[in-house]
Amino acid sequence: MHTKDRIATAMGESMRVRGYSASGITGVLAEAGAPNGSLYHHFVGGKRDVAGYSLRRMGQAYEELLTGLLADHRSLADAVESVFAAAASYMKESGWLNMCPVSTVAGEVASCELELRRVLAEIFESWTEHGVRSVQAYGLSAEAARRCTLAMIAALEGSFVLARTVRSTEPVEAAGHMVASYCATLGAVTSEL
């Protein structure tokens, strides 16, 4: 792995565990096995630039995961339930790791780091656009698919916080059932799989 990627990976892991503010560059570089001068060689803007780059990479990985989890189910409700069930299972198996560093950083910097807020908004909008396409495959209009996707993303992110805090998958499972029921009311049809 190239130095730039090692730094970005270390920054992503640090933000997932500690958030943006508590992610010190010295620790990130040490974790990446990168010399101090390499940060500004690869990320001219320093911490903010490496954070933005790392968040975009993580955002894309989560986008691909969500798209894959939504595919190939008999109904949209089944697809939504499977997304939440997979998240709940992974969260428990991982020892309640923070599932989404994107959301963690968004909550932390939305009011104070305009550049990162813009990066995070782009990530959330990209998730929404890809989710809409996946959800439309189950027969929803673009408008209904957007509502369903936004509900799914919001419920996932909120239920992750609650589940990690109470150390239970119940909030994620309940959110999945609620969103699946909601999306089913939006006019989804059964897929011909």
Task: Set out the fold topology.
Layout: H1 3-18, H2 25-32, H3 38-42, H4 47-70, H5 76-93, H6 101-109, H7 114-136, H8 142-166, H9 170-184
Helix pairs in contact: 1-2, 1-4, 1-6, 4-7, 5-8, 5-9, 6-7, 7-8, 8-9
Q: Which terms summarize this structure?
A:
193 residues; mainly alpha; Tetracycline Repressor, domain 2
Q: Round the Cα radius of gyration to an integer and report it.
A: 18 Å
- CATH top level class name of the domain at 55-184: Mainly Alpha
CATH architecture of the domain at 55-184: Orthogonal Bundle
DSSP summary: helix tally: 9
Task: Spell out the CATH superfamily of the domain at 55-184.
Answer: Tetracycline Repressor, domain 2
Q: What portion of residues belong to β-strands? A: under 5%
What is the CATH fold-level name of the domain at 55-184? Tetracycline Repressor, domain 2
Report low-confidence residues grouped into runs of 5 or more. none
End-to-end separation in angstroms reads 40 Å
- What is the tally of beta strands? 0
Largest sheet, in brief, is:
none
Helical fraction: over 70%
Specify the structural class.
mainly alpha
Mean pLDDT comes to: 93
- The arrangement of helices and strands along the chain is HHHHHHHHH
